[in-house]
From TrEMBL:
Name the UniProt record assigns to this protein: GTPase Der
Organism: Candidatus Amphirhobacter heronislandensis
Protein family: Belongs to the TRAFAC class TrmE-Era-EngA-EngB-Septin-like GTPase superfamily. EngA (Der) GTPase family.
Amino acids binding GTP 2: 180-187, 227-231, 292-295
Keyword Nucleotidyltransferase on entry: no
Length: 438
């Protein structure tokens, strides 16, 4: 698909425009400047294009992290099919606008740059655009992204400008989400999996604030890899951007096909890891646990740390567990991708009702459900109703008397006998209707 990059100085409304055009809240929006650091990408399905939101560019001296983010934004613009330079109608043409336009003009044909005059509500389009014609780019369009004004005209322009000659059949895509608390190595892993320095990496906690999606292929499989902001306990977060970042991260994990859950094994499994792991386990997705930074431990400590992590993450015993150092030169990122796809394949198996019912009968013969109030639940047959997580529906009488420990026993029986791994087996009980006697 065509690639369209949104760029401009901070706080002109780039992320708001991105969210409105993609109809997603993928990019964080806040009055604070420089919230966007890594570029954020999403497909605009109706228009058959990929839209990219980038960090703000400013003429004033900036911290090293923001300078790197701005440099990456400019590189994205260079490689784009079309650039949308967003400016602020209320602020008028600024020195920062002119400075960035000058850099763009050196790297890109002016005909491939469109000036988007944002925040033009309550203004005539011609008046809003007047000062910005001086930038000399191919087209100048007025919008008010917050109020959704002018977006239909912008979409029509993009469709006409970038309409593909042919529409290729859509490829089935697997979505991977990398999640964990701050500074466990999520962005370093993402860069390793992509084979390029896609994500900003810093020792400073909170470097990644957006959920950042990247598409690529691995052994012929189309993947979308989503790096997320580090998630801390909500009670300890009082920053509005971090609160929204955490919400986006949890949403990415819930919507993923596979979750790559990361832990700093040198520090050990802390309480926040356990809270977040329980949340991920509740989503039921195929999961790979990456115990990162094992190069900081010697052989004996490494073995003890792995065994301790298994115990402390016991509620994720369905997950594939890998111990490694993603920053090491000998790290093999393809092993993580292979494990993720293997977990997904296992969690996506479909099994016949006959086999499900046979396993149920064998499980009942080995350990019948306990009586409750003198009545024993009668579990009769089973069938599969879903994948990733595998969902087993069991029909019977008095199913409301079946307690949680017995459900865990049944889930373990199905997982073991069918070889389900990567995702937890979910059990749903359904009361059978009693047949009337003639």
């Amino acid at each position: 698909m065509s690639r369209v990059v949104i760029c401009g100085r901070p706080n002109v409304g780039k992320s708001t425009l991105f969210n409105q055009l993609t109809r997603k809240t993928r990019a964080l929006v806040h009055d604070r400047p420089n919230v966007t650091r890594d570029w954020v990408e999403a497909a605009v399905g109706d228009l058959e294009l990929d839209l990219v939101d980038t960090a703000g560019f400013g003429a004033e001296p900036a911290a090293a992290l923001q300078e790197e983010a701005a440099a990456r934004a400019l590189q994205q613009a260079k490689e784009a099919d079309l650039v949308l330079l967003v400016v602020d109608a209320k602020a008028g043409l600024t020195a920062e606008d002119v400075a960035f336009a000058t850099l763009l003009r050196k790297a890109k044909d002016a005909a491939d740059i469109v000036t988007i005059v944002n925040k033009s509500e309550n203004m005539e389009a011609a008046a809003a655009c007047a000062d910005f014609y001086a930038l000399g780019f191919g087209e100048t369009l007025a919008v008010a992204a917050v109020h959704k004004q002018g977006l239909r005209q912008l979409a029509a322009y993009l469709q006409e400008r970038l309409a593909p000659a042919e529409r290729p059949p859509p490829a089935e895509m697997v979505r991977l989400a990398v999640i964990g608390r701050p500074n466990v190595g999520k962005s370093t892993l993402t860069n390793a999996l992509l084979g390029r320095e896609r994500m900003l990496v810093s020792d400073m906690p909170g470097t990644t604030v957006d959920t950042v999606a990247n598409r690529f292929t691995h052994k012929g499989q189309l993947l979308e890899l989503v790096d997320t902001a580090g998630v801390r306990r909500r009670a300890r977060v009082d920053d509005a951007v971090e609160i929204e970042s955490g919400r986006h991260a949890r949403q990415a994990a819930e919507q993923a096909d596979v979750v790559i859950f990361m832990v700093d094994i040198a520090e050990g499994v802390v309480h926040q890891d356990q809270l977040l792991a329980r949340l991920v386990a509740g989503y039921g997705r195929a999961t790979v646990v990456v115990l990162n930074k094992d190069d900081l431990l010697d052989g004996a400590d490494r073995r003890r740390a792995k065994a301790k992590a298994k115990r402390e993450l016991g509620f994720m015993d369905h997950a594939e567990l890998m111990m490694c150092s993603v920053a090491a030169k000998d790290f093999r990122p393809q092993k993580v991708l292979d494990a993720a796809l293997a977990c997904l394949a296992s969690a996506s198996q479909r099994v016949s009702a006959n086999r499900m019912s046979r396993i149920l009968r064998e499980a009942l013969a080995g350990n019948a459900p306990p009586r409750s109030g003198g009545v024993r639940p009668a579990l009769r047959y089973a069938h599969q109703a879903g994948v990733n997580p595998p969902l087993v529906v069991i029909h019977g009488r008095h199913v409301d008397l079946v307690k949680e420990p017995y459900l865990r026993y049944l889930a373990d029986q199905f997982a073991t006998r069918l070889g389900f791994s990567g995702a937890p087996v979910h059990i749903r009980l359904k009361e059978s209707v009693a047949r009337s006697r003639a």
